[in-house]
Structure prediction request, 245 residues.
Amino acid sequence: MIKWLQENPADIKCFQEFYQDPTTPARNSIKLLGTEMGYEYTYQIIEGKPRARSYGMAIFSRYPIINEGKVFDTKRNNGVIFADIKIDKDTIRIYNAHLESMSIESDGLNNLSGLKENYRETLSKLKRGQVTRASQLGILEEHMKNSPYVNILVGDFNDVPYSYTYFKLRRSMRNAFEEAGSGFGFTYNKVLFFLRIDNIFFEEPLKIRKFKTHREVDYSDHYPISAIFDWERPLRKETEISEEN
Prediction:
């Protein structure tokens, strides 16, 4: 995975499940993917210690990060972080999200007996997850509303395109796959392969030029996704444009 990330450049990279071990050169991910590759970074630890092994969320950028922070975390490998990134004279806020997991053991759903055995438990987990993600989304939307910059929101949302979370976000943001993707765009690489739960949302006046689901990375349980954006300079929030009009 580290080799693929090193060989596939992007100006900004976001990680929802980031493993860091500075005591082992082959697993010092911040060094291998960040400082040695010319990236600034923000890394928020959810579990572990900075000088030992730790798990968390990270944003890497070839452009200067002028501000960063945490929206929330659950101490269970879920949360949202952000970074304000200065690109020439413009600044964009990047949100990196990992919302509450569905907590479904997909290996138990790969045959008819497994489906029958896990049916009620699976429904219960789905319901609990939806309630939690709705609460997390409320915190995130309030934070984005107060952002002084145009927002890009990326991450593992653990919810499908016909969910409450997805519809709520689509009221105020555009979806990169819908605008520039092709095919079904499934991002989950396990038994439940028909799920598109990883997304890139963005605000106008950003314009998306290209979107890709990297299905060649079949050794991960999620396929990486990428997008290329452009905009007219200077970049301003739609609210600012409306106020001037």
User: Anything to note?
Assistant: The mean pLDDT is 89.
